Amino acid sequence: MYDAFEQSVARYGDLPFLRSPESATKTYADSSITYTYNETLRLSNSLAAAYKNMGVGPGDRVAVAYDARLDVYLHLLALNAVGASIVPLNSSASDSELLYVIQHSDSKIVVSSDEHLARIKDIISELVDRIALGGAELDTGGKFPGMTGAGLTTEAALLYTSGTTGKPKGCMLSNEYFLAIGVWYNALGGICSMDSGDRLLTALPPNHMNALATSFTAMMLCGGCVVQLDRFHPSSWWQTAREEKATIIHCLGVMVAMLLTFPEHADDNFSGKIKFCFGPGSDPRHQGKFEDRFGFPLIEAWAMTETGAGGITIADKDPRHVGERCIGVPSPSMDYRIVDENDNDVGNGDPGELLVRSTGNNPRFMFFSGYYKDEKATEEGWQGGWWHTGDVVRQGPDDSLFFVDRRKNVIRRSGENISAVEVEAVLLRHETVHSCAVCAVPDEIRGDEVFAIIVLRNGAEPGDGLAAGLFDHCLQHLTYFKVPGYIAFADELPLTASQKVSRGEVKSLAGTILDAGQCNDMRHLKKRRK
Question: What does residue 417 show for φ and ψ, rounded to 5 degrees?
Fold first, then answer.
């Protein structure tokens, strides 16, 4: 990836590459920040030299706590240059979650911005060799002495994502992964065409593949500029898009829903200014309304951190089936099957789980390299030589795929994957909880919300006070978005014949309880860590 970046510097040196507007930098800088390709090269080379002086090299990992600052991208390039891997941290995570990621990833060093430094020091204690004091300590001004022997299969990043089995899993992403997804995006053309004049506005955090791998690498390869915000600010979003002269925007379904709640204005239409919005997971009821109101396509797509460009679909060509949750026609480079619960192919048009792999002799080409320290889960995902996505789709007469539901026990809230099992494990640590089940319930804005049904131990009394206590207990151990938005108490949980929790019946029961208003609504308490 660093090699590819150097080639882009040779082509686009004085063009802007990375930018954060003043509204996104006001907590740590006096003005906006813009780095050209040449400036990005100088800064990342300086960091690379410092890393090398600190003994960081091939096979090492560095955890980076800069949230959505441009520093994340500088450290990504610097670490890539010395053959090391970045582990982006999310400061809104709980202390125990951050400790888990730092420890599980075997990060050699933790680099933090000043605002998180004291907390990170306290969290890691004597866990790692040292902690670098943000960019100031690392900026040696030295000249990077040259590339290491890193190659396409070398790990470039370790991103943590929730699955179905509790703790987040570390997805190992190679140089090949990054470059392949950038090449894929640039090759789309048509309504998704991009070039060196493009400015891609995103509020998505670089600890997710959408920002770190997709938008960053795509702009790097075409000479465009990434305009990175600190977070999504719905009331000022369109003003920022105008001021930054955005030509491409990246959204999630929750962002689309929020933008449509604002009153219409005469200047809502961006036709001829913004080419398209890459907005996977949008509510199908919102897609047509969004396009009509704002004057550019809202592009639906599908992928996973695990699949990268090897298993990715996008509805960028007609017929796009607007408003039908169409995720596009599979590309020739992706093999796919739609199967039932026994991995048998379903009939034409019937819903089933989507299985994917790359065509050719290497079915894992362009996919993630595996789950770190969890080869068993990796191979289970690749059962039978196909990646089992856990997502249910159906195929239309014109070969378009349509998203139907999730088969895996994963809750998708505001673009974040949440493991129901992980939330249940935290709830079960509370002294009043005998058993519990967590599932997704629909949310008009965020897609899904976390719903917990709890069976109490003898002597514990259900009520608002206990619900608040359970909420606070979860907040101590989980990132705010994972904490139950609804808490309900029950005498028992629905079980299967083998005495396991019946996930299907739990989801149905949660819907019934929610409709009847027989639960504690905690959603107003779910707030990002300041």
Answer: -85, 130
| Closest to 13 in 3D by CA, of 33, 35, 28 | 35
State the pLDDT at residue 136.
43
Distance CA 71, CA 101 (A): 20
Q: DSSP per residue over 125-156, as a string?
A: TTSSSEEE-HHHHH---PPP----S--TTSEE
Neighbouring CB atoms inside 10 A of 220's CB total 27
pLDDT of residue 497: 64
Domain assignments of the chain as residue spans, ordered by start: 2-250, 323-406, 412-525
**Strands 387-395 and 401-406, how do they pair?**
antiparallel
Distance CA(463)–CA(470), nearest Å, equals 11
CATH superfamily placement of domain 2-250? ANL, N-terminal domain (3.40.50.12780)
The C-alpha atoms of residue 182 and residue 172 are separated, in whole angstroms, by 17
Tokens standing for residue 509: 């029961």
User: Do residues 298 and 282 make contact, with C-beta atoms less than 8 angstroms apart?
Assistant: yes
Cα angle at 465 between 505 and 427, to 5 degrees?
A: 45
Res 417: pLDDT: 81
The conformation of residue 194, written as its DSSP 8-state character, comes to -
pLDDT of the residue at 133: 44
Would you state the pLDDT for residue 151?
A: 87
**Helix 71-81 with 2-12: angle, nearest 10 deg:** 120
Q: Tell me the three state secondary structure of residue 184.
A: helix
Q: How far out from the chain centre does Cα 410 lie?
A: 14
pLDDT of 386: 98
The verdict on domain 412-525 having CATH code 3.30.300.30 is yes
**110 neighbors 128 (Cβ within 8 angstroms):** yes
User: Residue 375: its pLDDT value, please?
Assistant: 96
What does residue 143 show for φ and ψ, rounded to 5 degrees? -95, 130
Label residue 264 exposed, middle or buried (CB < 10 Å: 0-12, 13-18, 19+): exposed
pLDDT of residue 141: 47
- Measured distance CA(309)–CA(316) in Å, rounded: 15
CATH architecture, domain defined by 323-406: Roll (2.30)
At 18, list the tokens: 């990375």
Give CA separation, 49 vs 42, 140, 141, 220, 270, in Å: 11, 7, 8, 22, 44
- Burial label for 397, CB within 10 Å (0-12, 13-18, 19+), is exposed
Query: Structure pTM?
Result: 0.85
Residues of the chain with pLDDT under 50: 133, 135-136, 139-142
Q: Is 38 helix (H, G, I), strand (E, B) or coil?
A: helix
